[in-house]
Amino acid sequence: MISKHVSYEAAHDDYGALARYVADAGHDGEKCLASWCAGCVADDDYELAIVEAQATQALNTRSQKEKTYHLLVSFRPEDEAKLTPEAFKAIEERFAAALGFSEHQRHCGIHKNTNNIHMHIAYSMIHPELHTRHEPFRDYATRDKLCRELECEYCLSVDNGREQRRENALSQKAAAIEAQTGQESFESYAKRHKDKILEALEQA
């Protein structure tokens, strides 16, 4: 399991556009297996909940930073059969709690347009009652720790954590591809199978 915060500049922050992408609203569900919203008074009305979240964000006039946190959580192909819709929702709730977004409005979707099934979550960073902006501190460490915990709890394949990635850091291009597509890059694949590749080369 790999998690990634897809960051935006404040000028390109658009909660509505992201939430509709999460639900694959413009493509009649070609890639979205399921979508839902949480933390909203609108309950299960996905589109009305988008309006609600945008209205909440507009109530915070002090912050000049982005007000939307886009989280991508990607899973290995072999783990797909272990993940039920209920499991995805439970995993999202764990991320919301760990990042401090449990009381915040959010829109979630499960996508399968790549080899790796993945989940997109749009969190409104503005608290619906306090109207204050919440930005998780050292979120990369929090997410990494939670990924390792969830892999154990759901018997999922274990991905490299921060310590291992630090030793085998990806190039910026490969990291960007993985973040945007939810797929493992060729660079990651080659590094993961480094020993076998080197052994094959020696025997070639």
Walkthrough of the structure:
- The protein has 204 residues and is an alpha+beta fold.
- Helices cover 42% and strands 16% of the residues.
- A 5-stranded antiparallel sheet has the order 1-3-5-4-2, sandwiched between helices.
- Helix 1 packs antiparallel against helix 2 (46-59) and helix 3 packs antiparallel against helix 4.
- The two termini are 34 Å apart.
- The model has no long low-confidence stretch (mean pLDDT 88).
Determine the strand fraction and express it as a percent band. 15-25%
Shape: elongated
Query: What structural category arises from helix and sheet content?
Result: alpha+beta
> Percent range for helical residues?
40-55%
Number of helices: 8
Alpha carbon gap, first and last residue: 34 Å
- Topology, number of strands: 5
Q: What does the main sheet amount to?
A: 5 strands, antiparallel
Mean pLDDT comes to 88
Uncertain segments: none
Kindly list the characteristics that best describe this protein.
single chain, 204 residues, alpha+beta, five-stranded antiparallel sheet, 42% helix
